[in-house]
TrEMBL record:
Chief localisation class: membrane
Protein EC: 1.13.11.54, 1.13.11.53
Lineage: Eukaryota, Viridiplantae, Streptophyta, Embryophyta, Tracheophyta
Coiled-coil residue spans: none
Annotated InterPro entries: ARD, ARD_euk, RmlC-like_jellyroll, RmlC_Cupin_sf
Metabolic or biological pathway: Amino-acid biosynthesis; L-methionine biosynthesis via salvage pathway; L-methionine from S-methyl-5-thio-alpha-D-ribose 1-phosphate: step 5/6
Record protein name field: Acireductone dioxygenase
Keyword Amino-acid biosynthesis found: yes
Cited CDD domains: cupin_ARD
Amino acid sequence: MTVIPSFLRKVTNLTKHHSINLDKARMVISSLNLGVKDPREEVIQAWYMDDSVEDQRLPLHKEPKEFVSLDQLAELGVLSWRLDADNYETDEELKKIREDRGYSYMDFCEVCPEKLPNYEEKIKSFFEEHLHTDEEIRYCVAGSGYFDVRDHTDKWIRVLVKKGGMIVLPAGIYHRFTLDSNNYIKAMRLFVGDPVWTPFNRPHDHLPARTEYIKAFVEKEVGDHTVDAAA
């Protein structure tokens, strides 16, 4: 059952009994800062990056800071959830996501100097810009890290994922990964069928996964902006 805040019920009732336009009332409500926060934002935040050559583990915000909403990430095909990382073994929401999206394979990867063999080589490889021909699904059950993705104009967006955050990077999106200054993440890796972790370092624009991504997200985004400008 949907729970409607009491003040919204009052506004709706007023529109029934008085000559108040409901659309105007909604506009007033939407213009208010109601303090309603998406719970995902506590474990997943995103912003446009400064293209400096500083330590890749730093936040690297632009000045002034330019944040990116989770809805904007979704427009790039990047999906996100907040889940119960302390109870992932019995979490019904995670189970449903896996069933709905066909994520039959699961394992864990710990990235830190002490636990990842060939750490320096691997972390360098992770930070090379690349794409995959399948989705990349990562669920952070401990620690934190940065997933950098390209937007439709080829600018870098840095996505911080903390404990409880799960993201899906679509096949064909250029991206990279690095630890943050905490130097530790434990991530659940999910996959449809047998896992294929092959990275294709940029440029690999000829791959079908890339051309399909361009059609589904980049060209659509550019087209939407063209329509908006003409309106």
